[in-house]
Structure formats: structure tokens, C-alpha cells
Amino acid sequence: MYIADVKSGVKMSRLSLAVPANVLALGAVSLVTDVSSEMVTAILPFYLVLSLGLSPLAFGLVDGLFFGVTAVVRLAGAHLADRLQRPKLVAGLGYALSAACRLGLPAAGGSAALVGAVVAADRTGKGLRTAPRDALITLSADPGRLGQAFGVHRAMDTAGAFLGPLVAFAVLGASGAYDAVFVVSFAVAVLGVLIFVLYVRDRRESAPAPASIRPALALLGETRFRRLCLTACGLGLVTVSDAFVYLLVQHNAGLATEHLPLLPLGTAAAYLLLAVPLGRLADRVGRGPMFVLGHLALVAVYGVLAASGPFWVVLPLLGLFYAATDGVLMAAAGPLLPPGLRTSGLALLQTGQAVARMVSSILYGAAWAAFGPVPGLVAMGVGVVACLSLWKVVR
């Protein structure tokens, strides 16, 4: 037992040395916050479609809010963080707003319009916090180990995504009420805010931020960063949202309603296992090849869904897609951005993705309503393959 404890302690010490404490603290916040958010995300598609009876097109519009609303506030929030040199303050406001929205969901009752308004406010909070949080990671880690740092953060974040549906499943099974899930989600979100306030440290840039947002927009004049943004936006347009993927899995497999909150677990488990090793591998072999690998996994997801293949293949492939692309994209962008504009630059990239994915949700919802789910999947898959011709710009 003693030898095992010593070995375990050595491994933890090496992890602490390799990954800065601030990255681990941000990972802990994301873990707890994702337990809260994924509790809601796991049940919301089925609540809206199966309980409230929304059509695929109407659901596509609501689902688009998950991506589109963040675009409205990302740049403004990121510029404020750069201007004040207080990324922690802006990110903290975003976490607090999202936590408060958890209580707005039970208050919305059965109104899809009110649920949509609460979702919009929640996504506003996410839009405020995401770029400042990622900027804190880039400022806390060595540039040569950013892939690993983002991999560790995304792995901890995904651990929360794994636990969230389990907690939702347990609460829903014990109470039989969606409102109980929302209330427990609020309590967990408050805990995440407390961890953020107590343990995350602010980081300041070495250069002052400009007084206006124009220099951030001018970053698109830099060739490598512009091509990176165009690649991310193009691929965002042909990325079917997770909510539609899970609805298609349920549609194909005919799963019982009470088991639906458990579907994200397969995705989260693969993401959790692969985020750190793929982040390290991206640092060694290049972030472009890793980015391409992730999107080839996405094409495979579309193929299995279109063929009504087994869902136990779809879910880990989706996790592989996120593990190979999410943190890798931020790690690729960070070194391209100058001091004083780091948060704004990341927000610019994330805003383009958010707008693209909003449009994607609406278009895919309309295609499903008009032609059924398969033609839209085929079109999205062809689009991914076409966009991958630009993969070399991701460094």
C-alpha cells in the first residue's frame, strides 16, 4: 500500500509540475460548472421535442440560440477583459449569470418561448466567460505545452459533462420532475462560482489593450489567423449539433425516454479519455493533422447515423471529434495573437464558430423537416470533406 501511495504521489506531483495550478483550478471550475450545465443539456432536447412537441425546425431555432446568442456578447466581453486587464472578472460574471439562469428554467414552466429566453441568457453567460477563461489558460501555460494544458482543462471539463447526465438521470428518476433537475443544477452551478472566486488567479498581459475594438477586428488582416478563422467557420457551418445527434440516435434506436439523458455519457467518456493524450500528441506532431483527424471522425458519425448504425459507435466517435478539435483549435490560435489582444482574438474566432453553428442548426432543422434526417446528414458530410482542404492553415 505504501509503495502504491508513493507512486501515486509521484504521478500527481509530475502532473502538477507539468500543468500550472491556475489551469487545474480553471479545470475544476469547468468540471463543476459542466455538471450543472449538462444536467440541463441532457434533458432539454427531449423536454422540448417530446414533452412540448416542438417540430425539428422549431427545435433548430431554439438550439441555434445555444450558439448564436454567444456571438452577440463574446467580442464585447473579450474586449472588456482585455481593456480592464481583468479576464477573471469578466469570466466570473459569465459564470454567475449562467448559474442564475438555472432557476429561470423551472419558472418558465411549459412555455417554449420563455425557455428560449432563459437559454439565451444562459448562453450570454457562456459567451462572456469562454474567451477570458481560454485566455487565462494561454497566459498560465508555456506556449510549447498549450495543447497539453488545454487537453487537461478539456478533460476536466468533460468529466463534468460525464457526471452531469448521471446526476440528471438520478434526480429525474427519484423525483419524476424536470423542475427538480433545474434546482439541483442551480446549486451545483453556485459551487462552481465559489471555486472560481476562491482559487482562480488573474493574469495580466505584458502590453496594454487598445481603447477600441477595431484593432481586434484588424487581426483578421493577419493571413494565418484569418485562414484559421475561415476554416473554423466553414467547418462550423457543416457541424450538426450534439442535440440533433442525440435525437437521431433516439430516432434510430427507439430508446426509452428515461434513458435519453444517458446518451451524452458515451461522448463524454471518449472525450475524457482522449483529450489529454491527443493534446500532447498535437503538440508533438502538429495541430493541423489532429484537427483533420477529429473532423474525419465527425464524417464517420454522419455516416453511421445515416445508415442507422449502432449508437454505441456514434457516441465515442463524437467524443473523438471533440477531443481532437476543441482544445487543439484554441492552442493553435493562442500563439498567433499579440499581447493585449489575446482574449479578443480568441473571442473573434469563437464568435465565428458560434454564428456558423447557429446557422447550421437552423439549416439542418429545416432540412429534417422538409426531407427527413438523412439528406441533411449527407450534405453536412460532403461539406466537412470540402472544408478539410484548408486543414494546413491550422498550426
From TrEMBL:
<dbReference type="Pfam" id="PF07690">
    <property type="entry name" value="MFS_1"/>
</dbReference>
<feature type="transmembrane region" description="Helical">
    <location>
        <begin position="377"/>
        <end position="394"/>
    </location>
</feature>
<keyword id="KW-0472">Membrane</keyword>
<feature type="transmembrane region" description="Helical">
    <location>
        <begin position="180"/>
        <end position="200"/>
    </location>
</feature>
<feature type="transmembrane region" description="Helical">
    <location>
        <begin position="290"/>
        <end position="307"/>
    </location>
</feature>
<feature type="domain" description="Major facilitator superfamily (MFS) profile">
    <location>
        <begin position="22"/>
        <end position="395"/>
    </location>
</feature>
<feature type="transmembrane region" description="Helical">
    <location>
        <begin position="155"/>
        <end position="174"/>
    </location>
</feature>
<feature type="transmembrane region" description="Helical">
    <location>
        <begin position="228"/>
        <end position="249"/>
    </location>
</feature>
<dbReference type="InterPro" id="IPR020846">
    <property type="entry name" value="MFS_dom"/>
</dbReference>
<protein>
    <submittedName>
        <fullName>MFS family permease</fullName>
    </submittedName>
</protein>
<feature type="transmembrane region" description="Helical">
    <location>
        <begin position="261"/>
        <end position="278"/>
    </location>
</feature>
<dbReference type="InterPro" id="IPR036259">
    <property type="entry name" value="MFS_trans_sf"/>
</dbReference>
<feature type="transmembrane region" description="Helical">
    <location>
        <begin position="46"/>
        <end position="76"/>
    </location>
</feature>
<keyword id="KW-1133">Transmembrane helix</keyword>
<keyword id="KW-0812">Transmembrane</keyword>
<dbReference type="InterPro" id="IPR011701">
    <property type="entry name" value="MFS"/>
</dbReference>
